[in-house]
Amino acid sequence: MPGRLWHEYRTDVGRTYSDRRPALWRCFAAPFIHAGVRATLLYRVAHRCTRWAVLRPLAALLKRAARIASGCEIHPAARLGPGIHLPHPLGIVIGPTVVIEGPATIFHDVTLGARGAAANENGPRIGPYAFIYAGARVLGDLTLGERCQIGPNCVIYRDLPAGSTVLPAEPLVLEGLSFSLRFDAAAAAESARELAGT
Description:
Number of domains: 1
Oligomer: single chain
Number of helices: 5
CATH architecture: 3 Solenoid
Helix content: 25-40%
Number of strands: 14
CATH superfamily: Hexapeptide repeat proteins
Shape: elongated
Distance between the termini: 75 Å
CATH topology: UDP N-Acetylglucosamine Acyltransferase, domain 1
Strand content: 15-25%
Radius of gyration: 22 Å
C-alpha cells in the first residue's frame, strides 16, 4: 500500500476506534469488522485507480463492491480527506463532485452531491470535523465551514459558516383531528360517479 494511501487509511481506522495511532493488527482487522472502514478503504483504492484510464474499470468494480459490502456508495471521483468515519454506512451516497477536506463523521442515509442533473454543477465542499447526522441531505455548490453539525433529516442548500449547527424543524402536532381509515366501497363508487358526471 503506497505511503499516502496507508496514512489516510490508518487515520480512518483511528477515527473509528478513537485512537490517534491504531495498532497494526487493528488496521488489518478493521475492514472485516466495520462496514464503514470497508467502504472507505475500497473508496480510497478506487480513487487511486481513477488517475489512470486503464484502471478506471477497476474503480467502477470497486465502487460496486463497496456498495455490496457496506451498503454505501462513494463515487471514486469524490475527494475525501483522511479521517472519514462512517459509523453506520447503510444508505450513504456521496457524489463525484463532493470535497470533504478533513476528518468528518457521516451517519446512515446521508446524501451529499449536486442538486440537479447539470453536468457542470459542483457538489458541496465540507470543512474538517463536520458531523452529518442520519437522513441529512447536503445538495448543491455550497461550503460547510469547519466543525459544522447538520442534524437529522435536514436539507442544506446554502453555505454555512464555521461552527454552525442546523437542527430540523419541530414537528407540528395536530390535536383534535379525527379521520377514519375504513374504506367504504359504496361511498367511493358514488364519488367516482360524481367525478365522471354520470
